[in-house]
């Protein structure tokens, strides 16, 4: 067992279908889960045409006229779905130099005031006019379907690697998964000695899902993604064609009692524009911290006693000092349900949306 990591491991998922190699794959996965929190997966089974169709839509999407982007702007959506311009999302207290369009598993807007406020996050997408981007909706929906299936298959391997029944982790999943199509504009890095203009997205742990599956959609050597190891060093996660980068979300760290850590990461903007597509595997909105902590507590205490944490307070983990400073409201117990924790994060990141649709909790979330 290592105390830190210097590179991100790559796992060949086709080994799962080879009885001779499956045990080796599970051992590699266990190491990635416990010691790294980040990994590449190759031979993942997502059809190349599904990936290519989505990647081909990205330049056209972000070249749409400003009026069309405004029509699908995120500030129109109580579900935080739609377009947001660069410098409008806040991470680690600073604006992110990226523009993005957010989509999710399609649902009708059926929320009523007698439901928990966080259930309002479940709802419809905003789509550009079909004449402006005719291939976008079918490409996004096919990709969402493929990544939903991949995520469930991957969780079965994760369960087996952690000595759990195959389907033990599926009950934590939501009926809605989220997808971001992201464009990092190029920035002038020549005279930027302080790095002030390079925050593509600031240091964070993923709070929008159970697991994240990231497609780095620009070819190498274009990069910028970095993961923070336990020695406090930023490790590059370069683009590798044919792979997804997979990392642990905050809720999974809670359920595993810190055995499987959510690794802090960031993106640095650079001299080349960059596209990426993160898929966030959704967590049940009504999952309480009590349920998350209790469901598998005995299992992880028995099988991983050297890593098991009685508390999910990040200060008692093996993270670096910088990693312990990352805002983790669900891990640190400020909110009882995952849904409220997620809503709070979104309101803080997109305060215009929070003020418009969630005025009854806006002040609380932005000042806690």
UniProtKB/TrEMBL annotation:
InterPro entries membership: DIOX_N, IPNS-like_FE2OG_OXY, IPNS-like_sf, Oxoglu/Fe-dep_dioxygenase_dom
Keyword flag Metal-binding: yes
Stretches assigned to the Fe2OG dioxygenase domain: 175-283
UniProt KW keywords: Iron, Metal-binding, Oxidoreductase
Pfam family, one: 2OG-FeII_Oxy
Annotated family: Belongs to the iron/ascorbate-dependent oxidoreductase family.
Annotated PANTHER family: 2OG-FE(II) OXYGENASE FAMILY, PUTATIVE (AFU_ORTHOLOGUE AFUA_3G14880)-RELATED, OXIDOREDUCTASE, 2OG-FE II OXYGENASE FAMILY PROTEIN
Name of the featured protein: Fe2OG dioxygenase domain-containing protein
Source lineage: Eukaryota, Fungi, Dikarya, Ascomycota, Pezizomycotina
């Amino acid at each position: 067992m290592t105390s830190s990591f210097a590179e991100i491991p790559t796992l060949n998922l086709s080994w799962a279908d080879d009885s001779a190699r499956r045990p080796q794959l599970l051992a590699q996965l266990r190491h990635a889960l416990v010691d790294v929190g980040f990994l590449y997966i190759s031979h993942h089974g997502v059809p190349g045409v599904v990936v290519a169709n989505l990647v081909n839509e990205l330049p056209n999407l972000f070249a749409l006229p400003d009026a069309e982007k405004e029509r699908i702007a995120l500030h129109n959506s109580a579900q935080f779905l739609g377009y947001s311009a660069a410098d409008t999302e806040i991470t680690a207290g600073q604006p992110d130099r990226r523009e993005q369009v957010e989509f999710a598993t399609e649902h009708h807007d059926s929320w009523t005031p007698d439901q928990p406020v966080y259930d309002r996050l479940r709802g419809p997408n905003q789509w550009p006019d079909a004449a402006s981007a005719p291939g976008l909706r079918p490409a996004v929906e096919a990709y969402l379907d493929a990544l939903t299936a991949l995520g469930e298959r991957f969780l079965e391997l994760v369960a087996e690697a952690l000595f759990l029944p195959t389907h033990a982790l599926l009950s934590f999943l939501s009926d809605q998964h989220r997808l971001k199509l992201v464009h990092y504009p190029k920035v002038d890095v020549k005279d930027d000695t302080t790095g002030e203009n390079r925050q593509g997205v600031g240091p964070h742990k993923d709070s929008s899902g159970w697991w994240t599956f990231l497609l780095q959609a620009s070819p190498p050597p274009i990069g910028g993604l970095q993961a923070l190891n336990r020695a406090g060093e930023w490790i590059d996660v370069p683009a590798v064609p044919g792979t997804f980068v997979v990392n642990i979300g905050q809720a999974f760290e809670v359920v595993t009692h810190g055995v499987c850590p959510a690794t802090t990461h960031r993106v640095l903007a650079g001299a080349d524009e960059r596209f990426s597509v993160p898929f966030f595997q959704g967590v049940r909105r009504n999952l309480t911290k009590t349920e998350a902590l209790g469901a598998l507590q005995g299992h992880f205490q028995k099988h991983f006693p050297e890593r098991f944490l009685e508390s999910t307070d990040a200060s008692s983990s093996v993270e670096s000092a910088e990693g312990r400073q990352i805002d983790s409201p669900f891990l640190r117990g400020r909110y009882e349900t995952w849904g409220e924790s997620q809503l709070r994060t979104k309101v803080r990141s997109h305060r215009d949306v929070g003020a418009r649709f969630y005025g009854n909790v806006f002040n609380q979330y932005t000042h806690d």
